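DATA SHEET
Item: assembly model
Revision: 1
Owner: S.N.
Input lines:
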Amino acid sequence: MAAEGKVDPMHQFTIQPMFGSDGWNIAGYNVAFTNSSLWMAIAAALLFVFVAGGAKRQLVPGRWQMAVETFTGFVDGMLAANVGANGKKYVPYIFSLFMFILFANFLGLMPLGVLGLHPFTFTSHFSATGVLSILSFSIVIIVGFAKHKLHFFSLFVPHGTPALMIPAIFVVELISFLVRPFSLGLRLFVAMMAGHVLLEVLSSFVISSGNANLGLFAIAGVPSFILMVGICALELLVAGIQAYVFALLTCVYLNDAENLH
Amino acid sequence: MDAEAAKLLGAGFAAIGAGLASIGVGNVFAKFLEGALRNPGAADAQQGRLFIGFAGAELLGLLSFVIAALLIFA
């Protein structure tokens, strides 16, 4: 991409079929094994290794077991605070969701480029985060209707609403409910994409100013590089926060389904 | 005005939304810190609500980025 003399910040999000799988079709749909699938598989494999290495059930935990138990305890506490005693059964789901997104976000930020690999953040695609958010949303709907039957619709009419206001409030609450899967997926995808575009734009400043001449490199390249290091640290924070927010909002929505307000 | 130029101008104006969302996110954390310093004992229990507020404020800024991206690339 630097060959044309201009760095394309969106190039890093291209999905390419890998290992000659671009001809794989099922019922007319292309199901090629892409770089996105590869990094999903890597994230899942790393997560499996991380959890399997810590699931030793020792009475006095070692470092690794302690690390895994910190995360499970964190998810457990989040569910207890937001859903209550009924939330215990969702710990496996929220834990998988949180850790998968966390691993994916961090894997995309790893400086693997220096080894010649091309890290790909699949959470920067709405098709990936959208499916995760639809998964959460479906669980909320299924649990809500299974537990409260048609009484679940009272979610859209909060307690103590004056009768005159009910039609208006119902529509507003319904829209706010239906927008949830979009906002949930959109937030993660845009936050990851914006961060990666920003890093790419700043790095293109460093590269093109370095190619131009030494004076320009000193004026534009070096400050951009220093800013980039700072933004990298910020992106690490954002990667953690976005995974946390995704899991937290799923907990909040599950609370609506479990305990109608 | 050329339609392409208007699109790029619109994408630039969308950055105003991102700037305003930064005020919102700053407000969320500033108010939390203000309250947390007055009553540190209650602060930890409210961290979940802090991040819900942060997520809501941030989403609207990210939406302006989406609009800018749509204007340029779609």
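QC remark: The mean pLDDT of chain A is 85.
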